[in-house]
Structure formats: structure tokens, C-alpha cells
Amino acid sequence: MAEEENNEQVEEETEATDEAAAEAPAAEETPAAEETADSGQQTAEADEAPAAEETPAAEETPAAEEAPAEPAADEEPEEVLSPKEARRRERSIHAGEANPPRSAEERAAERAQTRSAKATGRSRRRGQERAKRGEPGQGTAPAERVPGTRKIQYGTVVSDKADKTITVRVDIVRRHRRYEKVVRQSATVHAHDEANEAAEGDVVRVIESRPLSRTKRWRLVEVVEKAPVRT
Fold first, then answer.
1. Could you tell me the pTM of the whole model?
2. Of 223, 139, 123, 134, which Cα lies nearest the Cα of 173?
3. Which of 63, 174, 175, 230 can bridge 139 by disulfide, Cβ–Cβ 3.0-4.6 Å?
4. Integer CA distances (angstroms), 101 to 31, 95, 105, 110, 121, in order
């Protein structure tokens, strides 16, 4: 009987121990959860605090960058100098040795020597260019004219207001002797028209003559083409 009572007491103590062990973790979990929640709140507050502090810093950064831009607007634009003024300024800041004093005759002789050297250099360069180009192009053949004969030109009448006088525009087309480019020019001459037969816009042929007035050195030969009638 005594052994049975001892066994029962042992079993009761074991059950009491098991129940206490089962209740102990449950009691300990509650504060741990509370501590976890508190730590989460503290972490959230800690994250929000830097974010609140970083916001003004981000706003201040552009202001700090814009600050040096203001004096840039007040800066004066760079001075644009002509080539002559730039050379004069370079000579004024030249730190080399100054030339000895010279008389007017010595300066003139030095300028003449410099010009002669430059002319020699130009002649040499032009000779090299001619040799590089080779034979010159044919270009426009010169007009055949027997010496002693008078020149004949074709032109367009631009004015017939004066009596017995017409103003003729002569177009000249030639090829440049160096660049081989066609150059178009025009010249205006006054021609004597005895019968007043040429009108403005006509194509006429004129020939050289003796001086007929202060400006007239040509004479009308014929009207090649009449101007179209204006309606």
C-alpha cells in the first residue's frame, strides 16, 4: 500500500511538473511578442526619422547648385577683337628683347627688304602652282580682229529717252585666266542713233566711231531684233 501511495505521489508530481512546464513557455511568449512589436515600432520610427531629415537636404541640394550660377549671368562676354587689334595686343604684351633704336632711313630700308623677300616668296609660290596645274586650258578663243579695224558689239537698248542717242548694255562673258571659271560682266555705252529707230529692249549692233559728244564713242549700225510689243 505504501508503495502504491508513493507511486501515485510521483505520478502527481510528474503531471504537475509537466503542466508547469507547458504553461511556462506560454507565459514567456507574451512578453517576447510585445518586445518584438515594440522593436518593430521603434524600427519604423527610426526609418521615418531619417526620411524626414533627408527631405530638406534633398531640397537644399539644388539651391546649393544654383547659387554659383548667378554670378555667371553677371559675367561680361568675351571681347571680340579684329585681327589688326589682336596683333597689336600681342605686340604690346611681347616680353622679348626690344629692337635697338633706328633712324627713318634704316626703317625704310628694312621695310623695302621685307617687301622684296615677300615678293620673291609669292613669285616662287605662283611658279609652283603653275607647274602643278600643267598646261593652261584652252578657254575662250580671242576674237579675230584685223589691226586697224573698228570694234563691233552686240547689246540691248536700255534707254532711248535722249534725242539721237541710245544707251546700250553690252554683256561680256569670258573665262577667268587663272580659275578657269566663266565670269559674266556688263558694260554700258552710248551710241549715236541718227534716225531714232532703236527702242528700249531692242537688240542692236553698234560700231566704234570718232568722239561724237562727251560720252558717245559708238554708232548704231542696225537693229538686229525688235523688242516684243507691250500690251
1. 0.41
2. 139
3. 175
4. 105, 17, 12, 13, 28
Could you tell me the CA-to-CA distances from 66 to 73, 74, 225 in Å, in that order? 12, 14, 77
- The x, y and z cell numbers of residue 199, run together, are 527702242
User: What are residue 223's DSSP bridge partners?
Assistant: 204
Per-residue pLDDT of the chain (231 residues; tens, 9 = 90+): 556 666 677 677 777 666 655 555 444 444 444 555 455 555 555 455 444 454 444 445 444 455 445 545 566 677 888 999 998 888 888 777 777 888 999 999 999 999 999 999 999 999 998 888 777 666 667 667 778 889 999 999 999 999 999 999 999 999 998 888 999 999 999 999 999 999 999 999 999 999 999 999 999 999 999 998 876
